[in-house]
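Supplementary Methods. Inverse-folding protocol.

Structures were first reduced to a C-alpha cell string of length 109. This string, shown here, constituted the complete conditioning input.
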C-alpha cells in the first residue's frame, strides 16, 4: 500500500468516525431533550445538523464518486450553513439587547 492510499484510508476512517457520534448526538438530542423550548437548544441542534451535513457531503464523493447533482447538493448544504450562522448571530444580538444594566449600560452575561 502506497502512502497516498494509506492517507486516504486514514482520512476516510476519521471522517466516518466523526459522522457516527454527531449523528447519535442529533438523534438523542431530538428524541430525548426539550430542544424546542429555548433558542439555545434550537441553535445547538441546527449547528450539529449542518456540521453533520458538511461531514456527510465530504463522505458522499468518497463512497459514491462524483455524480450529477453533487454541486446542487453542496449548494443546499452551504445555504443551510449560511442560514444557521446568520440565525445564530441574530439570536445572539436579540438576547444581548434584552439584558441592560440599570444605568443603561449593557450587562455582560
Amino acid at each position: 500500500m502506497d502512502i497516498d492510499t494509506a492517507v486516504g484510508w486514514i482520512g476516510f476512517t476519521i471522517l466516518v468516525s466523526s459522522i457516527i457520534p454527531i449523528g447519535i448526538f442529533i438523534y438523542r438530542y431530538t428524541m430525548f431533550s426539550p430542544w424546542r423550548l429555548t433558542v439555545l437548544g434550537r441553535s445547538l441542534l441546527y449547528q450539529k445538523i449542518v456540521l453533520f451535513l458538511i461531514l456527510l457531503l465530504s463522505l458522499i464523493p468518497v463512497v459514491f464518486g462524483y455524480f450529477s447533482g453533487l454541486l446542487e447538493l453542496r449548494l443546499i448544504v452551504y445555504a443551510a450553513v449560511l442560514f444557521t450562522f446568520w440565525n445564530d448571530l441574530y439570536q445572539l444580538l436579540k438576547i444581548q439587547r434584552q439584558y441592560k444594566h440599570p444605568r443603561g449600560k449593557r450587562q455582560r452575561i
